[in-house]
Every structure is written in structure tokens, then in C-alpha cells.
Design a protein that fits this description.
Elements lengths: L3 E4 L4 E4 L7 E6 L10 H19 L3 E6 L6 H10 L3 H18 L15 H13 L3 E4 L2 E4 L20 H4 L12 E6 L14 E3 L1 H13 L3 E7 L3 H16 L4 E7 L2 E4 L8 E3 L10 H7 L2 H9 L7 E3 L1 H27 L14 H13 L4 H20 L4 H18 L5 H5 L6 H15 L3 H13 L2 E6 L2 E6 L1
The structure holds one RNA strand of 75 nucleotides.
RNA sequence: GGCGGCGUAGCCAAGCGGUAAGGCAAUGGUUUGCAAAACCAUCAUUCACCAGUUCGAUUCUGGUCGCCGCCUCCA
């Protein structure tokens, strides 16, 4: 069964195809770096990263491009507020974004182009559109004429000349159609600018993604992703510009993720509204990391299909944390068992307890438009089977073969193979190990008062001690 | 006004024509010095509501109610 994806343009699932067999060229709109990220920004990063991981797991070669918008109105305004240059501001928040994403286990893109480093490509593209007649110049800049592109509205299903648009879109008597959008903006005094055939100015927002995907993928993408709010007008405009310029199909599959929402009256309320900085309901990622492990955040996001709305409530992170524990308890036990066994080669065994079937279910789920909730069900099934195999003292080689399959699934989901990495905390603590030894001496003498006191004491400090037969283990919670 | 989406157990969430996956929580049992973990078992006659199509609908069609998003920057 080939991978199927839901196309926003077709409003239906379709088989994933690519220009070049075995290779996927994928572009995902990245952030405008003018402030910190909230968990809403984490969703596209995590879900498209997971898609990429699964495609690579399936043997496809993926070129994953995700841009940084480092020049636009918001950045200019914010840098003025802070009294620093736009370059400095953009650099600061790009660094923060990259750190946050790395913590979430989001792989670095193959290419991470910055808008400000592709101005010549954008000018060339705009020039081409002016020359072929789909763009025109006014004192305010260069505009794309939507009336010259017959397929305008193909992606979003939106019809031009909507009377409601006129009240919302910036009015300008020199524009041919109210929906015409800026390709190039003439610089106002004091604004950053680049020289161009139309005088000093800067690019419009939509043109950058076209220019960069044009440069790195020859204006032909297999997958273009982003948040649902980008479908219109951003992606509709990108499509129009790119196809008007090349005459070739720009994108085969448009994929959009749903929003993270928050209760209107705070996290306790059930009727969610879209999270956003301007709504004042943003839950910043750097705050999220204080209350939840990166892996739990990731598991929570993947617990809902990427196109569905995702309501945020603090307790959901706790649920994810508990579910994660179930996975890592199994992995810990497995590691302990395998450490005691003589060196075994996974090839010597066949995956214990039908783990092979579990992986097939996992793949089937992922192939169906990246159905991560269903894939997770397969993963938990695998955990249960492995636990049973452990309990039944299955041969080490079989356990190892099964474990490798489980690790493969975890890798697709971007969940770390070890608890410590998932929690983002450090390794063994000498003090814990010392007290663990003293406690075991007490237990050997049946001095349970002392042993319980040590266990309770550590529990208060976030370290959980568990006895497994004669030995004891600890985990940081 | 136009376009689109959502409503499944206490909570989260898949399924989308053949009789309700999974997770969290809960309960009973096995195990344990006691716990924890693990294992076994229990946990929706029912999928917002009302009609219709069908041998059969949570899944398709029409309508009603409730919630949300896009149409302006937005993940």
C-alpha cells in the first residue's frame, strides 16, 4: 500500500506521487522570527517532521526545506520597539526557534533558507512576472494581478470579487483588483531596503517561498506544508506567482495542519479558540518545557491526527507523561534483561510475540495520511507484547529482534530511545547510587523502616526507586 | 455573506457501509516485605439530535442544534 495523503486542493486523500521516483521534495513554511514560539508553532514542526521521518523510514529520499522569514513588517516594528536592528532581532529568535525545535526532536531541515539571503532570486522572479504581464508597477510597489491568472482560487476554493474582501484588504485605488497582492514593497523612509528595478524596497511576504522553492527545487514541489491558516492567502498566492512564472505545476500535494486551541476562559474551558500571540492566549514553548518533557509534548501532539483541532489543557500533558512512562518502563526492563544476557545478535532470533505484525499495523496507519493516533495504538500494542515476552522469559535474541522493531517505530515518531533523553535530564547521580546501596543493605537485614524512609525521601525529590527482585532501580520523574 | 472543519465512554482519541482501536483515569485479581512496574480481567447495546437511502449507518443523503477556523498578520 503506497502512502496516501489528504490534499487540501482536492479535498480528498490521494496516493503520494513525486516528480522523481523514490525522492520527495518537501517545503514547509517556517516561522517569522520576531518573537518566541508558542506550542501552536510546535505542531507543524512536529507533524511535518514525523511525516518526513516516516517517508525516510519507508525508503524515500526526502529533501526537506523549511524557511526562516527574517524580513517583514512585524520584524521591523518589533526591532524598533526594542531598539535593535532587524538583523539582530531575527538572529536572536531564529536561534531560539532552532533550540526549541531541537529539544522537540525535530530534525534539522535539509535546507533552511533565510528570506533576506534570497533577495536577488525574488527580484528576478518579480521581474519575470512584470515582463510576462501578470504583475504591474505602482508607486507603492509591484503587484500581482489575480485577474491575469485564471486558476486563482484553485487551492482554497475561493472566488474572486467577494464583496466582503473589500472591507478587509488594504484599499488602494491603483490596484487592478482588490485581491492583488504585493510582490515588492517600495521602502518608506527609515525602513530597511534593497535596490531593485523598481527602486529601493523589500519583498512581499508570499514571494519569498516561491523564490526559495524555485531556487532549490526548480519551482516543482511534491509536498508543500504549513498551518491551515496559510492556505489562504499565502499558499494561494504562492501557487499563482509560481505557476504564472513557470507555466508548470508548482505543488503536487498541499498539506495543512489543524490548530492548537485554548479555552476562551483559560485552559479550564472546553470550547477552544485558536492559540495566538495576538489573542493573548499563547502558551510559550519555553514555559511548556518547564512543566513537561519534550517527549511528552511530542506524544501529546501526535496523539491527535494532524488535520484535527487540538485543544490544549495542562492535564493532557500529564496524561502524555504517564503514557510515556509505560513505554520507557518497558524499555528499561528490556535493557536490563538484555544487559544480563550474553551478547546476542538480533538476526539469531525472530521478533518475539508477533512484533512483526505490530510493525505492519504501524506502517499501515502511517501510510494512511500519517494517522499517528492509530500508529500509536500499534506502538502500545507492541509495548504490551514485549512486556509479556519479558515476563515469559522469551529468548534474548527474540527480545532483541522485537526491541529493534520497537525502536524503529519510536524513531519514526521522534521519541528518544531512552528515558533520560526523553526527559531531557542528566545521567546517574552518585548520591542516589550510594543511598540505593545503603537501602539494599537495610532491606537485606529486613530493616524496612529504613528502606522505606529512603524510598519516600527520594520520591519527594523526584526520584522514584523501584525494587525488581533483589535489585533496585531508580528513575527521575 | 462566501469557503471549510468539528461534535464518539469520566477525560483524550482512532474508525467512516457490516455491527465501537488505543491512551489516561478507575475497579478486582496475580506478583511484591510493603509499594512501584508488569501481567490477567472489568470499564460505550452505542457514536449531538431528527428524518431518509440500505438487508444493514457512528460511517452515505437532507435537515436541526452546538462549537471552531479562513476570507486582514497568523502555525
Amino acid at each position: 500500500m503506497p502512502i496516501h495523503v489528504y490534499s487540501t486542493e482536492k479535498r480528498a486523500k490521494e496516493p503520494l506521487t513525486s516528480i522523481e521516483p523514490g525522492r520527495i521534495r518537501m517545503y514547509v513554511c517556517g516561522p517569522t522570527v520576531y518573537d518566541s514560539c508558542h506550542i501552536g508553532h510546535a505542531r507543524p514542526a512536529v507533524v511535518f517532521d514525523t511525516m518526513r521521518r516516516f517517508m525516510e523510514y519507508s525508503g524515500l529520499l526526502v529533501t526537506f526545506i523549511s524557511n526562516i522569514t527574517d524580513i517583514d513588517d512585524k520584524i521591523i516594528n518589533r526591532s524598533r520597539e526594542l531598539g535593535i536592528s532587524w538583523r539582530e532581532l531575527a538572529r536572536r529568535y531564529q536561534d531560539e526557534y532552532e533550540r526549541d525545535m531541537a529539544r522537540l526532536g525535530v530534525l534539522s531541515p535539509s535546507i533552511r533558507p533565510r528570506a533576506s539571503e534570497h533577495i536577488p532570486e525574488m527580484i528576478e522572479l518579480v521581474q519575470g512576472l512584470v515582463e510576462n504581464g501578470t504583475a504591474y508597477v505602482t508607486p507603492k510597489g509591484v503587484w500581482f494581478d489575480v485577474g491575469k491568472f485564471a486558476a486563482y482560487g484553485r487551492l482554497s476554493g475561493r472566488i474572486a470579487d467577494d464583496e466582503h474582501t473589500e472591507h478587509r484588504v488594504e484599499q488602494d485605488e491603483e490596484k487592478h483588483n482588490q485581491q492583488d497582492f504585493a510582490l515588492w514593497k517600495t521602502a518608506k523612509p527609515g525602513e530597511p531596503f534593497w535596490e531593485s528595478p523598481w527602486g529601493p524596497g523589500r519583498p512581499g511576504w508570499h514571494i519569498e517561498c516561491s523564490a526559495m522553492s524555485g531556487k532549490y527545487c526548480d519551482f516543482q514541489l511534491d509536498i508543500h506544508g504549513g498551518g491551515a491558516d496559510l492556505a489562504f492567502p499565502h499558499h494561494e498566492n504562492e501557487l499563482a506567482q509560481s505557476e504564472a512564472y513557470t507555466g508548470k505545476r508548482f505543488v503536487r500535494h498541499w498539506l495543512h495542519n489543524g490548530f492548537i486551541t485554548v479555552g476562551k476562559d483559560g485552559p479550564g474551558d472546553d470550547s477552544g479558540e485558536k492559540m495566538g500571540k495576538s489573542k493573548g492566549n499563547a502558551f510559550w514553548l519555553h514555559d511548556a518545557f518547564k512543566v513537561a518533557s519534550p517527549a511528552a509534548l511530542r506524544l501529546w501532539i501526535l496523539g491527535t491526527h494532524y488535520r484535527m483541532p487540538l485543544l490544549y489543557k495542562p492535564e493532557f500533558l500529564t496524561h502524555a507523561e504517564n503514557a510515556l512512562d509505560r513505554i520507557y518502563n518497558c524499555l528499561d526492563e528490556l535493557r536490563r534483561t538484555l544487559d544480563q544476557a550474553k551478547s546476542v545478535q538480533p538476526e539469531e532470533g525472530h521478533a518475539a510475540n508477533g512484533m512483526g505484525e505490530v510493525v505492519e499495523q504501524f506502517k499501515t496507519a502511517m501510510e494512511d495520511d500519517f494517522n499517528t493516533p492509530q500508529a500509536l495504538a500499534a506502538l502500545y500494542d507492541g509495548v504490551g507484547r514485549l512486556n509479556a515476552a519479558l515476563k515469559n522469559q522469551a529468548p534474548a535474541a527474540d527480545l532483541k529482534a522485537a526491541a529493534n522493531l520497537l525502536y524503529g517505530m519510536l524513531g519514526v515518531l521522534g521519541l528518544p530511545p531512552e528515558r533520560q533523553a526523553a526527559a531531557g535530564s542528566g545521567g546517574a547521580d552518585g548520591l542516589v547510587l550510594l543511598l540505593l546501596r545503603l537501602r539494599n543493605e537495610a532491606r537485606a537485614k529486613k530493616d524496612f523502616a529504613t528502606s522505606d524512609r529512603i524510598r519516600d525521601g527520594w520520591k519527594e525529590r523526584g526520584v522514584e526507586i523501584n525494587d525488581r527482585g533483589g535489585e533496585s532501580t531508580w528513575t527521575r520523574k
